[in-house]
Request: fold
Amino acid sequence: MIPFDRYPKEITLRDDARAVLRPMIPEDAEGLWSFLQQLPEIDKSHFHEDVDRREVVERWAKSLDYDAALPILAMQGNRVVGTVTLYRNKTGWKQRVGIVRILIATDVRHQGLGTAMIREIRHLGEKVALNYLLAEVIEEQQAAVRALERMGFEKAVVYRDFVNDRKGHLHNLVVLLHPMSGLEK
Amino acid sequence: MDATVIDVRKAHHQMKKLLGEIAIALETEDIPAARKDLEKALEALYSAGPGEGGPDALRYLDHALSYAHRVIGDLLHEKGLPPHSPVDFVEWYDAGEVPFREDW
Reply:
C-alpha cells in the first residue's frame, strides 16, 4: 500500500537547503512543465512523448493514476526541482517489478537530492511489495549510475548503441536492478 | 597500507559496536530497506571473523562499513536531516583518501 501518510516529507540537502517531497497533483502541471523545460536534452530522451509540448504535461497531470505511475516531486517553495516516478503494472508477469525514473534540476545536483530520491523510491518499492526496482540510465549519466549502485542497484546489462536521443544519436543503455527485501525472505 | 591483526581486531570490535547502535536506532523505525542493509552488514561482519587478519577480513569489514553508511543515510533521510557522507568525516579516517563520495 502506498504510504501517503509520510507526505509532505521535508528533507535537508548537503548545503542545508530544504526540499519537500510529495506526490504530484493535477495542479502541478505548470510547475512540472517549467521544470522539464530547463532539463538538458539528454535527460528528456527517455520520454515517450514530446515534453516540450505543454498539453502533454497537462494531460499527464489530469490523468494521474498512482497505482500505475507514482510521481514524487521535490519542491523548493513552488518550484519543482526534481521528480522520481515509480511505474508499475497492475497485472501480468511484471507486476512485482517497478521501473524508476529520476530527474534532477541541474542547479541542485551534487547536493544529495538524487540520492534522497532513490532512498524515497526504494522505501515506496518496499511498501508496495515489489520484488525488484529497475532503473534504465544512459551510460553518460555516470553520476546517476554511481548513485544507484551505491544504493544497492546492480548493473544487470549494458546495451550498446541501443537508444537514441532526440537528435538521433545512439547511446549505451545501462539497466540496473535492485532486489527488494521481500524477495529474499 | 598493511593492517596488523590487532588493527583488524580493533576494527571488528568498533564495527560490532557501531552496528549495535544502528540496530537500536532502527528498532523504532519502519524502514525495510535499512533493515535488510543492516542484516547484510552483520553478515559481512561475521564473515570477517573476530579478529582474523588477511585481505578477506578487510574486504568483509569494508562491506560491513558500506552497508552501515547506507543504513545511516536511510535513518537521516527518514528524519529529514542532511545526508551523511564519509567525506564529511575525512579527518577521522586513517587513510589517504576516502574512496567514495556523494555525487548526485
